[in-house]
Amino acid sequence: MSAAPLAAWIEGIGFIAPGLPDWPSARAVLRGEQPYTAAPSVLPAPTLLPPAERRRASRVVKLSLALGLEAVAHAGADAATLATVFSASGADGHNCHALCEQLATDDRQISPTRFHNSVHNAAAGYWGIATGAMAPCQVLCAYDASFGAGLLDALAQVALARQPVLLIAYDSEYPEPLHAKRPVPDCAGVALLLTPERSPCTLAAIGAGATADAAESLADAELEALRTSIPALRALPLLQRLAAGDAGRVGLDYLAPMQLNVQVEPC
């Protein structure tokens, strides 16, 4: 007998990708109401951070803050009360590049700011500073399966703790020469606010479990290229179904040979 899928309700969505600066613009493209136009990702200034931290904020920090805050605003929730799951296939690509450049010189002294921005949980730390959140926080990495791992972790927390959980899945590009080995084209990500109970703000019900079936691809070649080149955007087939308001199953990439079987029921 197979285990029942993990389930929750979606109350808020945040989104940033190349050419898609927020969830409303992405929703219109995913519905087919507007054509996709490629452009560099636009990252809002992290205005909630104190001035000193704002100056130090990397692209990853700006990205994750913008994603989470959009999802929270979409749901009308209080960011300070929310448990969080941060999931990314890598950390700050530009900071990693700068550290490697410094270590390749005769002066191998690393600045404290560069060092603390290099750790995988840096974005989660800046989130706590910006929002005042003191709730539990998980920080995950599962390479190209990082969105799926984050989704499963967030759903499990909702099921066990019966409290809302904010999932923030994101990725950033690396400069050359690292880019040749990890060719993520730009920064992008998605945030989902998941809750244990339905409310007037609920967008859809979601359930997820493992499957051997193949993951879904996107018919639009440019959007499919984003899905396959930026690990956080493995979420795009799910977001397309949410945008269209269609009920049904979505197959998402996970840890081969397993995939995720995600059931969506719009409200």
Automatic annotation (TrEMBL):
<protein>
    <submittedName>
        <fullName>Beta-ketoacyl synthase chain length factor</fullName>
    </submittedName>
</protein>
<dbReference type="InterPro" id="IPR014030">
    <property type="entry name" value="Ketoacyl_synth_N"/>
</dbReference>
<dbReference type="InterPro" id="IPR016039">
    <property type="entry name" value="Thiolase-like"/>
</dbReference>
<dbReference type="Pfam" id="PF13723">
    <property type="entry name" value="Ketoacyl-synt_2"/>
</dbReference>
<feature type="domain" description="Beta-ketoacyl synthase-like N-terminal">
    <location>
        <begin position="34"/>
        <end position="221"/>
    </location>
</feature>
